[in-house]
Design a protein that fits this description.
The protein has 348 residues and is an alpha+beta fold. Helices cover 43% and strands 18% of the residues. It has helices at residues 7-17, 77-86, 124-132, 146-149, 197-202, 205-208, 217-220, 235-255, 261-287, 289-305, 308-318, 323-347; strands at 2-6, 31-36, 40-46, 50-57, 68-73, 92-98, 101-105, 110-114, 160-162, 170-174, 177-181. A 7-stranded antiparallel β-sheet has the order 5-2-3-4-11-10-9, with helices on both faces. The radius of gyration is 28 Å and the shape is flat. The relative contact order is 0.08.
């Protein structure tokens, strides 16, 4: 029984659910469950109040193999994660089972994690089906433990949430991710335990009772005004900038004079580069959202500093290229184009 996954993706799978593991007082929940079915490798964690499951689509060679499930004890998560970080991200990791062991192996290294084969983990699929079956009620106002909300941060920067009733768990959906959080069982004082949506609004009469005028947060909030040439430093801003550049370059290319080869080449190159950068950013964001956000922020600082040309020269030399030859060849190309244009003008 074995499946394969690259080291980076396995690390991401663990990170997405790690914040949801139970404490040491409930042994069966004190770890991350690796659960393999016919199509996916799942990492699952729960502490009874939240449950999170992240999945990785199996390679074709691994699909329809024998299903298995084992729990990685919490005490082994840190050394396993460090071992994965020590591997090259694209290196294939084979996950297999032996008696009382989970075996993680690459072509160059191997790690064996002791597990309890008989440990009965909760039926997490059935639990999520139960949450999904709850019928939503109008004006649901569940109480949530705000400290638990932070656990969902590693699941991605864009999540969907489904709320059903005051006393039932809400569901969370992300890219290859699903989870649920139980409502907080209120044990304090005051009317909060039985408060309805209408009662909650009634506690703010100066806001909800004085006027019928309403505004829209999307349309009526002040628009952020950025300096014209400030580089994008967030993923949404970078995506918008790259797509704008792609469309503008395409439009300029279509409108460029057919005889102006230089303009055509410039517009085409700008469009190709902007679209390529967008596709690479989209792929990086899917593989590792945090690394994508960090890279965009650092790139914004580099672009604002304006010394990226010098850095590119140094990087090219360090990589074994000859940037001086590139520069000389380009200057020769420009000179040849100028001579060609001058010849045409003289002939005319």
């Amino acid at each position: 029984m074995s499946v394969t996954i690259n080291a980076h993706q396995l690390g991401r799978l663990i990170d997405k659910v790690r914040g949801h593991i139970g404490d040491e007082y409930v042994e069966v929940l004190h770890g991350i469950r690796l659960d393999v079915d016919a199509t996916d490798l799942h990492a699952v964690a729960t502490d009874r109040f939240t449950i999170a499951a992240a999945r990785y689509r199996l390679n074709d060679d691994d699909k329809n193999g024998e299903a298995f499930a084992r729990t990685i004890p919490a005490s082994w998560l840190k050394p396993l994660r460090e071992w994965l970080d020590a591997q090259e991200g694209n290196l294939t990791v084979t996950i297999g089972t032996e008696t009382s062991r989970l075996v993680f192996a690459t072509p160059h290294a191997e790690m064996r994690v002791p597990v309890s084969d008989s440990l009965e983990y909760p039926d997490w699929r059935s639990l999520l089906r139960g949450v999904a079956a709850n019928i939503p009620t109008i004006y649901a106002l569940p109480i949530v433990d705000s400290r638990m909300l932070a656990r969902w941060a590693d699941a991605g920067d864009a999540l969907r949430v489904r709320v059903t009733t005051d006393l039932k768990a809400f569901m969370v959906f992300g890219k290859d991710f699903i989870g649920a959080q139980a409502p907080k069982r209120y044990t304090g004082v005051g009317p909060c335990e039985d408060e309805t949506f209408e009662q909650a609004l009634g506690l703010w009469p100066s806001i909800f009772a004085d006027s019928d005028e309403v505004a829209d947060m999307d349309a009526d909030m002040p628009v952020e005004e950025k300096p014209r040439y400030e580089a994008a430093s967030t993923i949404p801003d970078m995506v918008e900038s790259l797509l704008q550049q792609t469309l503008r370059s395409t439009s300029d290319l279509l409108g460029a004079p057919s005889k102006d080869a230089g303009a055509i080449a410039s517009y085409a190159t700008a469009g190709v580069n902007a679209w390529s950068a967008y596709r690479f950013l989209a792929a990086l964001h899917q593989a590792d959202p945090r690394l994508a956000a960090q890279t965009v922020a650092e790139l914004g600082e580099e672009l604002d500093a304006g010394d990226f040309g010098e850095n590119a020269w140094d990087i090219a030399k360090a990589a074994g290229h000859d940037p001086q030859k590139w520069s000389d060849d380009y200057e020769a190309h420009l000179k040849k184009l100028a001579e060609k244009r001058a010849t045409k003008q003289n002939a005319a």
